[in-house]
Amino acid sequence: xxxxxxxxxxxxxxRSLDRAASLDAxxxxxxxxxxxxxxTSSPDAVVLALVLTGDHVVxxxxxxxxxxxxxxxxxxxALHRAAAGxxxxxxxxxxxxxxxxxxxxxxxxxxAAALSISQRTVETHRAHIVEKLGARTRAELVRGARELGxxxx
Length: 153
Known about the structure:
Radius of gyration: 18 Å
Strand content: 5-15%
Number of strands: 3
Number of helices: 8
Strand order of the largest sheet: 2-1-3
Shape: elongated
Largest sheet: 3 strands, parallel
């Protein structure tokens, strides 16, 4: 198992899991280190604990997809599709956060509190999202979030 965690939040749980289940758990703090480890160790599973935004997401997905050493073809294909979808998303990272929360049923007030922004800023982001997606109702916003892969199907 390969754990990619730049903040070290999963280090202790990984060590415990490694001891308890006799797994060969390796960790990397950066995506580049993770790719190098994946190429040399061919892990059965990869846990990504990354917070990536914008072009970083697309780059990370492309790097992982192109590193086909040991990756099942289905996973490589899924990573390529995800990279293509992320590159085509018309929303900014913050607009994606707002849309994800709206699609999750949160009110503007709840979104504002969770993201530490004003309610007016949420309304502005929502207006931009509506304009970019051509959505008129909350249901259309939820559908748009699903199509962009921001929520579960």
